[in-house]
Amino acid sequence: MGRGNVYVDGSDTDTRTGSAVITARAAATFEPVGRSVASARAFVRDTLQGWGHTDIIDDAVVLTSELVTNAVVHAGTTADVLCLRSEDAVRIEVADRYPEREIPLQQSLRTLGSPDREGGRGLQLCAALASRWGVEYTPTHKQVWFRLDLPERPVGTRTAGPALPVELLPVADPRVHVAVVQLDSAGAITAWSDDAESLFGYEAQKVLGRPLTDFAAWPHTPGTGTGIAEALQLSRWEGSYGIRGSDGRVIPVYASHLRVRDSEGDPSTVCLLVRDQERAVLQTPHRGPAPDAASLPETANTADPFDSFIGSPAPDDLDGLLQRTVERARDMLDGDAAFLLLATDDETELEVRASTGLPSARQRFARVPVEAGTGRYGSARMPAVHEDLTVVPGAAPLLNGTGMRSVVTVPLKVEGRLTGSLGVAAEAPGRYTNEEALRLQFAADRIALNVESARLGELERLRRGSLSFLVEASDLLAGTLDRDQTLALMAQMTVPTLATWCAVYTIADQSSEPYLSYVLHEDEDRIDGLKALLQRIDPPDPVPTPGARVWNAPSEAAHRAALRTSMRSLGLGEPTRLAAGIGTTLATASAVGGETVVLPLVARNRVIGMLTLGKPSEEHFRQEILELAEDLSRRAALALDNARLYSERMAISQSLQRSLLPPGLPQIPGVEVEVIYRAAGEGNEVGGDFYDLFPIRDGAYGFAIGDVCGTGPEAAAVTGLARHALRLLAREGFGGPAVLERLNAAILDEGARSRFLTLLYGELWPQEDGSAVLKLVCAGHPLPLRLRQDGTVEPFAEPQPLLGVMDDLELYEQTMTLEPGDVLLCVTDGVTERREGTRMLGDDGLMDVLTTCTGLTAGAVASRVMRAVERFATDAPSDDMAILAMRVPEPHTD
């Protein structure tokens, strides 16, 4: 890395550059490590960009990269880089600390000119690209320098080009719109020009304050190069991307970004955007041709100008490298369009990764077969020249319907393996011959290794990102057993990371039809329209075959609907409501106009649904994204099936558990009754605690509150046995002790399934004088408490043995009377054993709470007790709780 950069402006005499005055200089030192080469490139690029000499940056960066590589990698010493600017040239010096005087010139420049030579290319490129270059020595240093002349242009002119005939001028629409968009430091739109409104269809008030990333159709996939957010932070940037218009279609644009700051120091970004085919309005012209061979030493060979941009994009910026490649290839062969495709791992298909000059229908990640036909020219593995594509239809599937007539394609190969294909096309027939094919093949050979290296780097980053994505997705899916939440998570994880929209179909059983269960679009305003469209078409077939398959029905249905709407509008004059409907229909059509794929959701060898992913406006999925979606679909299918099984089990369990609770409480004349029940544990409705209140015969009512030892199905079985046995025995006329003794025998008959049971059972008779007579048996249960009108609280029964332990029980009942205004409170031990650390509410704490309930109704008493229990501790209750409050109201007085 550089230890420091120093910029010094001033005047001096420079005998080395041949100029009278040095107007600026910059220097940096780089350590002998591999990353220093990239740091040196960045240093030179930033320096020249700061000086305003962008038209020579490419050459300077390439030459610096080669010379610094020689210094820090081959010579193994630090490298000193010095940039000198004069009025008409820039000189860059690279010095190392290895004082070896032998240079490759002694091996002849003829050898240097060989493209197959491993070393010496730095001097070869100097000979090809620099106006002057040389090597100088000192006892401790060796210095290689080169000079790049600044282009001659009038004062105040940044770049200039020659006058051209009209037929050679670039083609543009009759009205060229240059959209001016200004963003704040966070990337939000602060200014939106009239041309921006005309070009993209959005009114200013609808976009101001929103991030530009909401509208930019940048490749949002893991492993790509510079993203739109990063590009907006650069001091200057030029390139192509898409803006999603108001109709949902992606408009390819060429953009020039300039980052500025206002008088208060706040940064902002100014963006100029034109249609991609009008890029000449904004595009910075490429440098002129390399120096003529006559001006170089006799033995020097001029490097192909295609080489000079290889080092321009960042080493890991595959998209930038490919885009620059197709643009330079088109310019090199004077074509109308160019494209670059990368081969899949099995080399059976080629995937579009970069193009220029082709219509928007030829979007990235579209696929064509490697073997498009028979014969030599039907395979992408060999160079091919097609003079007229109308004579050989289908010879270049990517160009079908584009108007291109002639094309030359060459393979990209690394170690004999096909890695891609590069092609240049023209609208006129007969434009290319074998000579252009050889020239393009030479360029492809020079770039193939760089492309493959960047592709493997991108693939590795994509796979790392995919693993991280799948780990996070698995954690989220494992965190819920709710079916609806699982469906929502499935969709939210795919949109917008993997697709623009998503739909999930579920299948209840093998005899059921797929049902549209969830729809999500990255634009929330389009969810309803998309859902309505999908409900009008037949769902995809539930094919269990793994992998993604293309489903054309949504896009075809959307296009048919848009066509019918447009035809109706022509006949009805487009009234306002109809026009609004047309806009909605067209927006829906554009939203699903791209590739749509279906992945089966297979769990436990059964198709339980389909995951549908879609792209808008003729966009395609890349293979890596489909593989990632397939991995996600397997995890999501298992999570969805687990949620289904859990929901079914919970429904059955809750249905059975609800049968253990009384369906309702009877109205007892002259007695207020209130019950509060809280089962511990998520999703439970009943546990080991239970209660019941039922009529026995005219004027008599039975009530019970109990607690079965343990939890789960065994405890629930005893609960059901106890509740139903109590009702049956009481209605047969047995008294309280007899009822409990027979229940005790029934529990013991369960054998290993038996559980001991604490139970408070009583019978209640309302009296004509407003009181109520109770007969109670308290078998091991917390004693009931009576609250008198004067606020005193006392136990209302005596403890007796619990049930389910001993064969022979001698139980007795106690008869007591509740006077008007008295309250009887019965609880289970989940109330009295409520804990906070070492503290426990206990019987005394419950009595203290009850003393504050004088004059309250039964419902109010139960509610106050429950609030006191819940507030006693911050943790969720760990045991079931049941509260039964009965109150004899005071007589009304007029």
Automatic annotation (TrEMBL):
<dbReference type="InterPro" id="IPR036890">
    <property type="entry name" value="HATPase_C_sf"/>
</dbReference>
<dbReference type="GO" id="GO:0016791">
    <property type="term" value="F:phosphatase activity"/>
</dbReference>
<dbReference type="Pfam" id="PF07228">
    <property type="entry name" value="SpoIIE"/>
</dbReference>
<dbReference type="InterPro" id="IPR003594">
    <property type="entry name" value="HATPase_dom"/>
</dbReference>
<feature type="domain" description="PAS">
    <location>
        <begin position="180"/>
        <end position="210"/>
    </location>
</feature>
<dbReference type="Pfam" id="PF01590">
    <property type="entry name" value="GAF"/>
</dbReference>
<dbReference type="InterPro" id="IPR000014">
    <property type="entry name" value="PAS"/>
</dbReference>
<dbReference type="InterPro" id="IPR052016">
    <property type="entry name" value="Bact_Sigma-Reg"/>
</dbReference>
<dbReference type="InterPro" id="IPR029016">
    <property type="entry name" value="GAF-like_dom_sf"/>
</dbReference>
<dbReference type="Pfam" id="PF13492">
    <property type="entry name" value="GAF_3"/>
</dbReference>
<keyword id="KW-0378">Hydrolase</keyword>
<dbReference type="Pfam" id="PF13581">
    <property type="entry name" value="HATPase_c_2"/>
</dbReference>
<dbReference type="InterPro" id="IPR036457">
    <property type="entry name" value="PPM-type-like_dom_sf"/>
</dbReference>
<protein>
    <submittedName>
        <fullName>PAS domain S-box-containing protein</fullName>
    </submittedName>
</protein>
<dbReference type="InterPro" id="IPR001932">
    <property type="entry name" value="PPM-type_phosphatase-like_dom"/>
</dbReference>
<dbReference type="InterPro" id="IPR003018">
    <property type="entry name" value="GAF"/>
</dbReference>
<dbReference type="InterPro" id="IPR035965">
    <property type="entry name" value="PAS-like_dom_sf"/>
</dbReference>
<dbReference type="Pfam" id="PF13426">
    <property type="entry name" value="PAS_9"/>
</dbReference>
<feature type="region of interest" description="Disordered">
    <location>
        <begin position="284"/>
        <end position="304"/>
    </location>
</feature>
